[in-house]
Amino acid sequence: MKNRRLFTLGALAAASSLVLAGCSGNAEPPSEGGDEKPFAGETLVVTTFGGDWETAFVEAVVEPFEEETGASVQLVTLYSADALAQVTAQKASPQIDVVHFSGGQEYTAAQEGLIEPIAASDLSEYDNLVEVATVGLERGEGPVIQLAPIGLVYNTEADAPAPTSWTDLFDEAYAGHIALADFSNTYGVLSMLRVSDVLGGGIDDPSQAIADLGALAADGDAIVVPTSPDLQTAFAQRGTWLAPYAMDYAGTLQDAGLPVEFIVPEEGVTASLITANVVSGRENPELAKLFIDFELRPHAQKVFAEQMRYSPVNTTTELSADAEGTVLTADELASAVVYAPGDIAANRQAWTDEWNALITQ
Predict the structure, then answer these.
(1) Out of 103, 253, 301, 334, which could bridge 312 as a Cys pair, Cβ 3.0 to 4.6 Å?
(2) In degrees, to the nearest 5, what angle opens at C-alpha 47 toward C-alphas 317 and 1?
(3) For residue 257, what is the DSSP state?
(4) CB-based contacts of 34: which residues, under 8 Å, 6+ apart?
């Protein structure tokens, strides 16, 4: 593995000139022996989410990409909102090649010309990808590389039966033992929309779902948690029995020794999507597209699934026997309800205002 500099926000700007120089053809020429790899001397700057995600990402994508191409990858840790802000601020002089989003920011980035379209022909695994992974390409967005199903996380030691439906959040059996994700957390918005579907309002009119979920919090039947670590505390220390949340984090709770399981409601799951996008205006878009292609290959998808419990978006991914039961298969994902990021982006602030007005009463 090559030595790789991990950038902070402060260091990224200072290094951009070096990156551009490395990508402008000033690399050492190939050796006469022909052993030089096709992109030796070139560099990509790629965003990550840090922590365990980055550890898996390096194994799944970065190391194989560097080994096969000879290019170098420099990583900068940026969460989605900050990544969009960074790419927007640098539009005239971009310093990132591949940007990852987990909250639908790719829709805004595409609308504002911050990212380049990716064609089906750019992706060697296109024909093997689940439909949800590629629908955004038509809007100029990058493909979905990771998918986290969102359903119900249940405490198996609860003094209440295992839930079967999204409406069980309103069952008296769980009153006082529910945790809801705040709308500052995308999981909170997505689970609210699934409840709205079941109640009949859907994404067009989720007011009833917001009101009913907000009433749980206002009446003390539920607590509101902003982040994933807060959810772990809720299950470990605050007597939580039931929470709408992501399947991969249910696995994190299990790894921490908590007695929980992920339940797919009878009405089906929704999903949080992580996309990979080529930033417009850089000098090496083809290499950036190749990097994203690596993210969709079976090896990468296997690592994401087995280490992070993301459901594979490549149908040819072969998992170990132990891992097969920890993620949803492509067939199980076929019924997942996935919302257009543009619809969420257009309405999220209004929904959040409604939510905040209820939970702060």
Answers:
(1) 301
(2) 65
(3) T
(4) none
Spacing of C-alpha 112 from chain mean position = 21
| Half-sphere exposure for 128 (CA within 13 Å, toward CB) | 15
Domain with CATH 3.40.190.10 in the chain: 6-147+272-333, 149-270+339-359
Gap between the Cα atoms of 258 and 241, Å rounded: 11
pLDDT tens, position by position, 90-109: 999 999 999 999 989 999 99
DSSP letter (8 states) at residue 8: P
CA distance 359 to 216: 9
As a CATH number, domain 149-270+339-359 is 3.40.190.10
Please enumerate in sequence order all residues whose Cβ is within 8 A of that of 301, keeping only pairs 6 or more positions apart, or say none: 60, 312, 313, 314, 317
Q: What pTM, to 2 d.p., does this model score?
A: 0.82
Percent of the chain with pLDDT over 90: 82
| Residue-level length of the chain | 361
**pLDDT single digits (tens) 260-295:** 999 999 999 999 999 999 999 999 999 999 999 999
Nearest in space to 280 (alpha carbons), one of 143, 86, 116 = 116
304: left (phi over 0), alpha (psi -120 to 50) or beta: alpha
Q: Which residues contact 35 (CB under 8 A, 6 or more apart)?
A: none
Q: DSSP secondary-structure letter at 85? A: H
Domain 6-147+272-333, architecture per CATH: 3-Layer(aba) Sandwich (3.40)
